[in-house]
Amino acid sequence: MHIFTTEFTVKCHSPDYMDTFPRQRKQAEQRHRIMKRYKYIFIVIVLIFLSCSRTNKLFDEAVSLDNQKKYHEAIIVWNKLIQNNPTYLPAYINRGADKFALKQYSEAIKDYCYVISQDSTYITAWLNRGSAKLELNDYNSAIDDFNAAERIKREVYGCAQVIFHDRIEPKDVALEEICLQRGMAYWYVDSINKAYSDLNYCIDQEYEVVCSHFWRAYVYWKAGKEKEAYNDFMTVILQGRADDDYVIQAQQNLKILDTHSTLLK
């Protein structure tokens, strides 16, 4: 268990100068992450279906369309694959990812719900359903899904970092990924201590360092710890790419803190 004892005195509301850009940042991040994860799953699934030429052909076609970001067309192919092999759960996961990319969050949730109904240990389905709920502002339900993903991760698969190429297990995801997504959700429901715990865990594990520091900065900021927020935003700038949205937003946030914060003067 990752336990942190740091406690915050949480303000009842965020400062007026904190606008809604965490929402836009999270949406862009979720779309990137959910598709990035399935590039690994795609590699794994190919090995499973070498014996089925029709499924292989459909699979390759869907992957090609996904790589071209032609998600509408890819969904049509995933539909054909599912019709050809209705028990193949990764096809539902991948179709859900395409629906997610098209902002069809409710439709994506239906695919993930089906997978969970067939295999309740499918961590990827729990994680992605939580991510889709997060986009629909259903924060508490999203947190429930992330908690379920963590429980399954610990009880069924263990907590080690997932290595896709050494251990072929497309249902599994890294514990750090669960904590990162859940940390964002906790931020939105003002569960600052829990958000801090999850994000700090990711930072300790050196997982998605720029993203984790970015969101921990918001935790500090909401808690009124502006010096710590400033330092985390500075870390984002130093470790991220100049054209990264995180870096651009962190630079803007530092200007806001410089202008409004009395603690930094």
Biggest beta sheet summary: none
Instruction: Give the beta-strand count.
Output: 0
Please bin the fraction of helical residues: over 70%
CATH architectural name of the largest domain: Alpha Horseshoe
Note poorly predicted spans: 1-17, 31-51, 162-168
Count of DSSP helices? 12
Q: How many domain units?
A: 2
Q: What's the overall geometry? A: elongated
**Relative strand content:** under 5%
Radius of gyration: 20 Å
SSE pattern:
HHHHHHHHHHHH
CATH topology of the largest domain: Serine Threonine Protein Phosphatase 5, Tetratricopeptide repeat
Structural class: mainly alpha
Average pLDDT for all residues: 81
Distance between the termini: 39 Å
Tell me the CATH superfamily of the largest domain.
Answer: Tetratricopeptide repeat domain
- CATH uppermost class of the largest domain: Mainly Alpha
Protein model, in words:
The relative contact order is 0.11. This protein has two domains: 18-173, Serine Threonine Protein Phosphatase 5, Tetratricopeptide repeat (Alpha Horseshoe), CATH 1.25.40.10; 190-265. It contains twelve helices and no strands. The protein starts with 20 loop residues before the first helix and ends in a 5-residue tail after the last helix. The longest helix is centred in the first third of the chain and has 28 residues, at 21-48. By secondary structure, it is mostly helical.
